[in-house]
Amino acid sequence: MDGNLGQSALRTATPDARAETLIASYERAGYARVSPPILQPAEPFLDLSGEDIRRRMFLTAAPGGTELCLRPDLTIPVSRDYLASPQAGRPSGYSYLGPVFRHRADGNAEFLQGGIESFGRPDTAAADAEMLALGLETTAHFGLSEPAIRAGDVALFGALIAALDLAPAWKRRLIKDFNRKTNLAQDLDRLMLGGNNGRPEYQGVLAALAGSDPKGAHALVTDLLSIAGISAVGGRSVAEIADRFLEQSALGASTKLPRDVRGLIERFLAVAGDPDEAAAELRALAADANLAGELGPALDLLESRNGFLAARDIDLKRVHFSTAFGRGFDYYTGFVFELTDANRAGDPLVAGGRYDGLLTRLGATVPTPAVGFSVWIERLAIYGGAQ
Known about the structure:
Elements lengths: L5 H5 L6 H12 L3 E2 L5 E3 L1 H6 L2 H4 L4 E3 L5 E4 L4 H9 L8 E10 L8 E10 L4 H18 L6 E6 H10 L4 H9 L4 H12 L10 H8 L3 H14 L4 E2 L2 E2 H14 L7 H11 L2 E2 L1 H14 L3 H20 L7 E4 L12 E6 L9 E5 L3 H4 L8 E7 H8 L3
Parallel strand pairs: 1-5, 7-11
Antiparallel strand pairs: 2-4, 3-4, 5-6, 6-14, 7-12, 8-9, 10-11, 12-13, 13-14
């Protein structure tokens, strides 16, 4: 185990009475309380969480070599337990409260996380609205009645990129880098230059692989890595490393982004306001770009969600919606939100969103809708003040 965990981080985080009362309210709302093991397989977090979480994990290894970690978050552990339960595939809701572990420069590596995960509900817009409503009830429970609300929708960006005439590898890269704005800007710059501006010493190799039989190229790269004695890097197998290398060859293929298409992407990412205003502006953008059909389903969902939010007495004028807003987790696929103290910069108090693709990537045999949020208990206890 990483020695930087420290003695202070090894203390078991103890919920206070308000935290326990909060989880009891989730249980009354239909979210059964669960408590996944603290020690978890590292691979799902390394593959699915995102770079911010990966670089702050505490890793160890079992005697047989299996890489393990102290859970850095509870969404993946709760998802794994749901898939292993008799309820898998059925609508189910869970709540939790317990310690999670991440390297932090400004606090203990162990801290309390509460939250909710909802699986299998087909009423997507209503479930999204319920998460934001419960999140607002959470901050109010700790004495913060009017937090700042930021929201977005990853599915809108995905629908836009899917509609563009780009190589599949570039579409995957742009969607993956949506949460990393510097990387996304670099991707667009590289596409403007035609894609081929990587490291020159192996550009010829990448170009040759890009035009080769995919199975044969994968076998070649896998064999070369094995010959070099590489078995795993950062929790990724040789086969996964080969896949990533071959994706680089596809990214190096000649693909040039027209200036007007980049302008469309940048115009899309500049849309911001309350959710109703954003929906109207996006409808206009889709019509101007002849993409009404491609963006239509995601926009329909946005407008439906707005209706459910209003039905829960959430003032949409309080919600700052931005098409550029995302969170630092790669598994989000739709609605995302964060609640913060309007008088303090930065740190989220409640945050979450929709992650419909995660359970399939964790082994589900059928697609399973999923949405939820996490609560930073200790921040809320400080920011909300004593009751």
